């Protein structure tokens, strides 16, 4: 006897075009045209604002499919945020999205058009949902970011010390030590 997979009937399809500092987002209900795209900041406040906007459509997070391209590391924070809130998030290869757009004969390429195209890809192909990494990965990423910041700060301090007059041999000589001529 085979176990039946639960099939979700999505009420909303969301396409997200990711950039380093912003994300362009469009959505559509089944058999509808994509919405006019909006732009959000790649910040916790921007993510919360998107969540509130999507809730205002009337669909519940577990009945929304969010599709975004795997663009560098920029997609990870938003994808993890939405997955924690119960959204079905699908990460697609940029080549897949590119070929889908070509199949639709889309020649222009803007963030807004890309977001709408990803919305259509979500509605037509309904790619499998992504499984976020365990929480330990997020903590590790935070610690590595902190380490990088400390290394940058250490480098700056070393550069400042190397350029100071007393360290470079320029400027006034050091005062004599006890017991020496003076």
How would you explain this protein's 3D organization?
The protein has 182 residues and is an alpha/beta fold. The protein has two domains: 114 residues, Nucleotidyltransferase, domain 5; 38 residues. It is built from five helices and five strands. The protein has a five-stranded mixed sheet with strand order 3-2-1-4-5. The chain is elongated. The protein starts with 11 loop residues before the first strand and ends in a 19-residue tail after the last helix. The model has no long low-confidence stretch (mean pLDDT 88). It comes from Ktedonobacter robiniae. InterPro entries: Transp_IS110-like_N, Transpos_IS110. Keywords: Membrane, Transmembrane, Transmembrane helix. This is Transposase IS110-like N-terminal domain-containing protein.
Main traits of this protein?
182 residues; alpha/beta; Nucleotidyltransferase, domain 5; elongated; Transpos_IS110
Layout of strands and helices, then pairs:
Elements: E1 12-18, E2 22-28, E3 38-41, H1 44-55, E4 64-69, H2 76-84, E5 88-92, H3 94-103, H4 111-125, H5 135-163
Parallel strand pairs: 1-4, 4-5
Antiparallel strand pairs: 1-2, 2-3
């Amino acid at each position: 006897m085979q176990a039946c997979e639960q099939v979700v009937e999505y009420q909303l399809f969301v396409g997200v075009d990711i950039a380093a500092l912003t994300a362009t987002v469009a959505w559509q209900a089944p058999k509808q045209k994509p919405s006019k795209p909006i732009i959000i900041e790649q910040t916790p406040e921007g993510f919360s604002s998107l969540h509130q906007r999507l809730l205002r459509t009337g669909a519940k997070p577990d009945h929304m499919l969010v599709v975004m391209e795997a663009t560098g590391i920029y997609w990870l924070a938003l994808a993890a945020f939405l997955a924690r809130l119960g959204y079905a998030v699908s990460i697609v290869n940029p080549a897949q999205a590119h070929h889908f757009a070509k199949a639709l004969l889309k020649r222009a390429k803007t963030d807004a058009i890309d977001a709408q195209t990803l919305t259509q890809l979500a509605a037509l192909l309904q790619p499998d949902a992504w499984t976020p990494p365990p929480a330990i990965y997020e903590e590790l990423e935070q610690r590595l970011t902190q380490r990088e910041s400390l290394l940058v700060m250490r480098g700056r301090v070393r550069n400042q010390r190397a350029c100071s007059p007393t360290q470079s041999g320029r400027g006034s000589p050091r005062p004599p030590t006890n017991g020496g001529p003076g």
